[in-house]
Amino acid sequence: MSSSFDLSLLGWHDRLEALLPDGTVPARVARVHRGAAEVLSAGGEHHVRFGARVRRAAADDPVALPCVGDWVALSPLDAAAYEGGRYELAAVLPRTTAFVRGGVSRDSRGGLSGDGQGQVLAANVDVVFVAEPSMRSMPPEGVRGVLPPGKHSADLGRIERLVALAWESGARPVVLITKPDLFDLGLDDLLADVAAAAPGVDVHPVCSLTGEGVDLVRAHLNGAHLTGAHLTGARSAAAGTAVVLGPSGAGKSTLVNALAGVDVMETQQVRAADGRGRHTTVHREMIILPGGGLIIDTPGIRRVGLYDMSDGVDRVFSDIEELAEGCRFSDCGHTAEPGCAVQEALESGELPERRLESWRRLRREARWMATRTDARLRSEETRKWKIIHKEMRRSGRNRP
Ligand SMILES: Nc1nc2c(ncn2[C@@H]2O[C@H](COP(=O)(O)OP(=O)(O)OP(=O)(O)O)[C@@H](O)[C@H]2O)c(=O)[nH]1
Ligand SMILES: [Zn+2]
Fold first, then answer.
1. Whether the model pTM is above 0.90
2. Which residue has the CA at smallest separation from atom 1 of ligand 1?
3. Residue 327 annotated as part of some ligand binding site
4. Which ligand has the shortest distance to the CA of 180?
5. Is 252 annotated as a binding residue?
6. What is the mean pLDDT of the chain?
7. CATH of 310-398, one of 3.30.70.270, 3.50.50.60, 1.10.40.50, 3.40.1010.10
8. Where are the domains of the chain?
9. Measured from the CB, is residue 282 less than 6 Å from ligand 1?
10. Which residues form the EngC GTPase domain (predicted)?
């Protein structure tokens, strides 16, 4: 536990300095266990327990629980007070962005307001790389038969969903078209289609095998492209924090290896016949890149595609939202209503049918997710109270 870190390589910047309580030491959470965390401070790696204030806050609202990516304040402990640790985790510094599952909304100023039931999966992520392979052997869901040669099979709906999630978290999405070497013909078409599906989002091809485009990815992490409002005041060269989302076999681990310059993650040989990878496992939750910047990769983040994204959906489909403002009726369903600007755009070809359907599907899904999360939490709550009541009855019986 001795290697030390230059905190700016972990993304520490001046604005955070001002938020640090007196007498505490800054650190970044690399991993969380029950009631404790592994953190990186300038002095090295520490295992720290949550202090009383952190535990109390988390009992009121799980969103207050420290999570991977959090900047935290450590309080020194004297050796007698706590054997086995030199610090305790005294406070979580305000988050700039957060991947949250369930029960939390973002207020108008971008802050998080929990309803006591959400869970933060990763905090202070600046960039979300959405990896989509340039080709794959299987036709997209619902499409039967062999794909015509030269026509790409990128899943635009999936890209839209992941970009929506990125916006929802407060981070900036960047779409990476992986394995471009397997599909040079038609790559321009693919890039154009993806750009149309994710307006306002950078789209780059990146080949982890030849290294082409990897520097561009790195540049997004090294502050060269960091322009988000939440970063104003930050040193321009501050190292960025990223997550990589995308389907299994998209080449996420290979890309992280290429960025890190070493095999931090195990990748498997491509199955030559179909270009699809086999599932690979994660070995570390936070990968610190040599040139600065880091990648957070946790099981929770890997499943993030399943979670709530209602605001993000509105943003990724801002073109449709804008069109809808031109509809005659404010509650227009965009089907057969008179004066529907969305239908007009569809007829003129300005709006692809696929995109409107994707929007409808994701909105339905986001709504369904929200109700399902609520239902699950309600039943968990009921179960918890049943246990508590049972224990109260039992301890009542045992009383002399
Ligand atoms: N041709 C080519 N193959 C690549 C490229 N990048 C990755 N691959 C291969 O694609 C396969 C899958 O890559 P991984 O990095 O394991 O994919 P992943 O997205 O991490 O997959 P999961 O861990 O299952 O989520 C591996 O066999 C890689 O060698 C690329 O740029 N070009
Ligand atoms: Zn309409």
1. no
2. 179
3. yes
4. 1
5. yes
6. 76
7. 1.10.40.50
8. 7-95, 125-304, 310-398
9. no
10. 138-302
